Amino acid sequence: MASSKQKAVYWLGNDTLRVSAALFAENRGRLCRGLKAEKDVPAGSVVVLQGGEQKQRYCTDTDELFRQESFFHWTFGVTEADCYGAIDVNSKKSILFVPKLPESYATWMGEIYPREHFKEKYAIDEVHYTTDVSAVMKRVKPGVKEYEMESLFQHYCYARGGMRHTSYTCICGSGNNSSILHYGHAGAANDKTIQDGDMCLFDMGGEYYCYSSDITCSFPVNGKFTADQRAIYEAVLKSSRAVMAAIKPGTNTEESHKQNMFGPLWFGRLCCKGRNVCFCLIKPDAAAVEVCGVFQGIERIDEPGLKSLRMGRVVQERMVLTVEPGIYFINHLLDKALGSPAQCGFINNGVLTRFRGFGGVRIEDDIAVTADGVELLTCVPRTVEEIEAFMADETSKPFSPISSQKL
C-alpha cells in the first residue's frame, strides 16, 4: 500500500513534472541528520522556518505574483503564502502552521480548506493555525473568572505543547489585582470576576523540557483602551522598546535599569486628553536572566527599585533575558509616598485619585542577545492598535510563537 508521502504529489497535469512530497520529507531528514551531527546543537532542538508573505501592489487589493521563500520550499514544498513550519530534530516530526482565513476570503479568493487538507496535501505530521498561540487573550470577556483564564492557558500549554508544567504560578490579575506583582498565590488565587472596563495583566509561561518562557500581556477586557489606559500602556511600551534597543553585548543591566526607571520618560509628563498626567509611582521589573544572574562576588543594591534586580551583571551574547517594565498603582506605597515630606511634593494627588484602583500594566518579552543587539522571541499583539484589532477579529496578521522582529 502506498504511503501518504507517495500519494501526495505536486502535478499540474498534461506533460508537467510530478514532484512527490516524499522529496521534502527526505530533505527534512537530511536537515535533521546534519544538525544532529553538529556537537553544538542541543538535544530537543526544533527548527522553525517562516514562509514567504503575500504582498499587495501599492496598498491595493491586487496581489503580487507570489513565490515561496526558497528555504521554506526546500523543506516543506508548500505553495501557500503566510505559513510557518517546524521540525523536531530528534524525531523528524513536521508541523505546518497555516493562516486562519476570514469568511470573506471564500467570497473573494475561493474555498477555505480545513487543516486536514494541508496535512494530506503535503504529507505533514501536524497542521495548526498561525493564530493558535494567541487564542489565551480573545476568550476574555466581562463576567468570567480570572482562574478560568489560567485554566485555558494551562490546557493550551499541555494539549498543544506537551507542557505539563507552567514556568511559575500563573498571574491572571484584573482591575486592581493587576497591581499585585505576584498575584495568584494561595492568598489571592486568581478568583476575581473580571469586570467590563478592567485592565487585565496576564503573566504566564509554559515549561517544556525544563526550558521556560515568561511573557506578560496587558490589555482591556472589553477590547478598547480608555484614554487613561492607553496613556499608561504606551508609556510602558515605549520603555520596553527603549530597553531592547539599548541591549547588546557589554551592556550594564544596572545602568539600563536606572536610565529607564529614573530617566525623563518616567518623571516627565504624559499628555492624556489635554491633561497632564504625572506618573508618581513606577516600579519597572528589570531584565532577569532565566538562571539567576547575580554571580558570587556581586552584591545586590539595597535601593528602592534596584534591590530586586536579579541580573546585576554585564550582558553577553547568547544570553536569554526577559525585559518587563511596568507601572503599578499600589495603594499602600502611594499612601506612604503621600505621607512623606520628601516625596509628596512630586505627586499630583488630584490626578492620582483618578488612578486609584487602576491596577497596573506590565509588558514582558523574552529576548536572546545577539552579536549586535537582540532577537525578540515573543510575538503577540503589542501596540494599542494591534491589540484592539486583534480582540475585535479585525486582523489576520499571524502572531508566531517564535519569530525575530524588528524593534
TrEMBL record:
An annotated Gene Ontology molecular function: metalloaminopeptidase activity
Pfam families, per this entry? Peptidase_M24 (PF00557)
Q: Name one GO biological process term.
A: proteolysis
Query: What reaction(s) does this enzyme catalyze?
Result: Xaa-L-Pro dipeptide + H2O = an L-alpha-amino acid + L-proline
What does this protein need as cofactor? Mn(2+)
Q: Please provide the record's keywords in A-Z order.
A: Dipeptidase, Hydrolase, Manganese, Metal-binding, Metalloprotease, Protease
The EC number(s) given in the record are: 3.4.13.9
The residues covered by the Aminopeptidase P N-terminal domain are: 19-146
Quaternary structure, per UniProt, is: Homodimer.
User: Family, per the entry?
Assistant: Belongs to the peptidase M24B family. Eukaryotic-type prolidase subfamily.
Q: Protein name, please?
A: Xaa-Pro dipeptidase
Q: Taxonomy-wise, where does this protein's organism fall, top ranks first? A: Eukaryota, Metazoa, Chordata, Craniata, Vertebrata
Q: Which gene encodes it?
A: pepd
